[in-house]
Amino acid sequence: MIQLTINGLQASFEKGTTLLEAARFLGFPIPTLCHMEGLSPYGACRLCVVQIGDGPGAKLVSSCTYPVEEGIRVRTASSRVIRARRMIIELLLASCPQSKVIQDLASEHGVRQQRFRQEHETCILCGLCVRMCEEQMAAGAIGFRGRGEHRTIGTPFDITSEKCRQCGGCIYVCPTCQLRCTYTAPEKAICGGCANLQPPCLEKERFDDMMCFMEPCVACEIKKN
Amino acid sequence: MNPSVHTDSKPHEEGRAGSLIASLEEIQARYGYLPQKALLDLHKRTGSSLVDIYGVATFYRAFSLKPRGKHLISVCLGTACHVNRAPVVAREVERLLNVKAGETTADREFTLETVNCLGACALGPVVVVDGHYFPAVTTSRVGDILQSARVGLNNVKVETDERVFPLEVSCARCNHSLMDPTHPIDGHPSIRVTVSFDNQHGWTALSCLYGSYNVASEYEIPDDTVVNMFCPHCHAELLGGGSCMECGSPMVPMIVRSGGIVQICTRRGCLGHMLDLSGAIVH
């Protein structure tokens, strides 16, 4: 058994347990996107960052891939962790603003601002579908192709794979291609639209800015200046 | 170029973890690109997942899924080359060939690619054509370089090129000299070996000049035929060389008289060879 401290709570876990499992076991919530029980940990979305240690030597690690270590002090919600997590959500939101899952995450974590240009990608390369296909469906029909900004997910040669049984597992786990929030128009909708049912600007006739649903109304703030 | 014939790479290594890149390199060396059929064959033969094969094939820039031209032109756009006006050179090549970087000309003669550093920064801007480095390239020289590539950079003038020198070799088995003064090639005694392929069995005389690929044969050997070579004296098959770095065919070793070993590829038309003079006594 390995002794460690999570948010000041001493606990011991079996060797090989990840920090994410340990923290969740103790009841500390850690948001995740690319993690799913039954699939191998991948560490792509970085949402599950936690802080190890204190002071200037502290480091941020992805808890879903980090195994418990003897004597480490883990904090799952330090100000640095929260800041990093918000930034990650903001970046994810910029690449896939139409994703309901990411919008909900943003809402949950109080991300009300969007400072980056929206890309309207359909994929955040979390690899859930690839792992689902290979590990749970034992098919291996889809995979990563290319490198860097040209990295995509798909079948080899972009032709229908013989391995694919059209089980739909990849679509089921995908965080970006579920039902999209189309509150006003797809490209204008942003997180908080669901949690924040009351738009902050009641005097407005049309909510034609993507920032209309933010608290405070960022669109109005910008127009004021 | 018929991808379906590709079956003779080393099966004992294939399929083992870590051998995928080597297998892909072999296919790329053979066809100049990775044909879809060859990748599907590799998948069937080794059982490794097609997704993995395709992922690796698209990950590395050294692999191409599209047919490449006869000549590969790499223009370096690394920092040192860039500040020495390499982008202008690249644009000039693009203009003359009428293609963009990464594309192949319609006549399949040239493929143009830009690379990020060739490690020859002092020579910048560097252009590499078919493995030949051209240093300090200016726009006015681009046309000449393309022309020399068309003519063939691997065609050496035996009389004048100083990279060409004669070798004296002997059989690795019986150590009998293989030199044959009665059939001179390039003005030097030739290397005489017995070759067999299909049902033919006869002599072949190779130029002894290192860098010359002139050959005379009793029977016409069709291109791409892999032949078996035998010592004309002890009649043992010349065996035990490595695999050709260019095409993967077996190579034939011969002892260099002054010390060292030279290996030549057994596939007709392949220029693969390797000279190892590490055992030589240098005077």
How are the SSEs ordered, and which strands pair?
The complex is a heterodimer of chains A (225) and B (283).
Chain A: E1 2-6, E2 9-13, H1 19-25, E3 49-52, E4 59-62, E5 73-75, H2 79-95, H3 100-108, H4 128-136, E6 143-145, E7 152-154, H5 169-173, H6 218-224
Parallel strand pairs in A: 1-5
Antiparallel strand pairs in A: 1-2, 3-4, 3-5, 6-7
Helix pairs in contact in A: 2-3
Chain B: H1 20-31, H2 36-46, H3 50-59, E1 71-76, H4 79-83, H5 86-97, E2 110-115, E3 127-129, E4 132-134, H6 139-151, E5 165-166, E6 169-170, E7 179-185, E8 188-197, E9 200-206, E10 209-210, E11 215-217, E12 228-230, E13 251-256, E14 261-265, E15 273-276
Parallel strand pairs in B: 1-2
Antiparallel strand pairs in B: 1-3, 3-4, 5-10, 6-13, 7-8, 8-9, 8-12, 9-11, 13-14, 14-15
Helix pairs in contact in B: 5-6
Total helical elements of chain B? 6
Number of domains of chain A: 3
- What is the typical, i.e. mean, pLDDT of chain A? 82
Biggest beta sheet summary of chain B: 5 strands, antiparallel
Order of helices and strands of chain B: HHHEHHEEEHEEEEEEEEEEE
Instruction: Tell me the structural class of chain B.
Output: alpha+beta
Question: Beta-strand level of the residues of chain B, as a percent range?
Answer: 15-25%
Number of domains of chain B: 3
Structure annotation, total helices of chain A: 6
Approximate shape of chain A: flat
Q: Low-confidence runs of chain B (pLDDT<50, min 5 residues)?
A: 1-9
- Side by side, the strands of the main sheet of chain A go 2-1-5-3-4
Total E-strand runs of chain A: 7
Helix content of chain B: 10-25%
Largest interface: A-B, 15 and 12 residues
Largest sheet, strands/sense/barrel of chain A: 5 strands, mixed
